[in-house]
Amino acid sequence: MKTLRRVLAIGVVATVAPVGLATTTAGADHTEARLTLTIVPEIGPVGQTINAQLPAEAYDPAAGDLCAASATANQIIGDAFGDFSSGDPLEDVIAGILENATQEPSFEGTLDSILFPLVFADVATQEPLSDPSFWNPDNGQGSIVAPGEDVNTGQPLARPSTYAVAATCLGINPDLLPDAVAAAVEALTTLLEDEEGTAVTDLLTCLTAAGGDPAAIAACVVAFAETTATTLEEGVADVLAALLEATIDQDPDIAWAALFCLTGPNFETCEGPPAPGPAEPVAVTPRFTG
């Protein structure tokens, strides 16, 4: 679902802010940061690709897998749509269509690229400074490019200066899901009624004729989905994007971080001038005194 990922890309920056760089145990509504993220290199210029490796505790079941809940988000959302019932035949069909959409591999892949962000952040303010990249929950690996500008303001970043690379995993707040699911169903229903009125009328007629027969009802829904495929593709992406923005937990328990030196325009380091390179040979004209 490329549309869904595009809609959410900017929102994720706000979702993971602040990353929290304190190394003490977090209190309520605060993220505990652990300086156990490994990055290579630890110093470089604007445009430098920084490869990151999270510790095993973040993704390996044998080491705790602290991000396990994030990996089941699609099932949690799907179950919420499955539990939805308004008594309105059209809304119940729409809920079923959305439930099926959340179980598609494309949606699961989109969640993986949203719920496991990797960001470049300001150490002092703890605010993300870059568009998010993402790490792989299967092996804890990811990469991000050192930015030259603050994504929030467009202003150049101070250089040379030390910044943070931070990774975390986000989850879905189940308490917010029922209202978000109802809003998604209502929004998609309204869209289809406005843009696919004839198909909606045909669906309701078909459902009435089906008389409660599961096979006949399924055939009605399949025909409706095929007829409205273009509208559904965009509409489903939009309402699921809104649902995720409303329900993603914006206060992760843990973030893993490392410090990165963004070198100056002339490759000055964060500790002073650049290290001297090899000495250049000096041409000397011999002087003979006889």
Blueprint of the fold:
Layout: H1 2-15, E1 32-34, E2 38-40, E3 43-44, E4 49-53, H2 73-83, H3 89-102, H4 105-115, E5 117-121, E6 133-134, E7 141-145, E8 161-168, H5 177-195, H6 197-210, H7 214-227, H8 229-247, E9 254-262
Helix pairs in contact: 1-4, 1-8, 2-3, 3-5, 5-6, 5-8, 6-7
Name the beta content range.
Answer: 5-15%
The helix/strand series, from N terminus to C terminus, equals HEEEEHHHEEEEHHHHE
Helical fraction equals 40-55%
Helix count from the secondary structure assignment: 8
Overall radius of gyration: 26 Å
Distance between the termini: 85 Å
Low-confidence stretches: 1-28, 275-290
Mean pLDDT equals 86
Number of strands: 9
Biggest beta-sheet profile: 6 strands, mixed
Shape from CA axes?
Answer: elongated
Structural class by sheet pairing and helices:
alpha+beta
Notes on the structure:
By secondary structure, the chain is an alpha+beta fold. It has eight helices and nine strands. The relative contact order is 0.20. Mean pLDDT is 86; it is low at 1-28 and 275-290.
List keywords for this structure.
elongated, 6-stranded mixed sheet, 290 residues, alpha+beta, 14% strand, 40% helix, disordered C terminus, 3-stranded antiparallel sheet, disordered N terminus
Report a brief summary of the structure.
By secondary structure, this protein is α+β, with helices and mostly antiparallel strands.
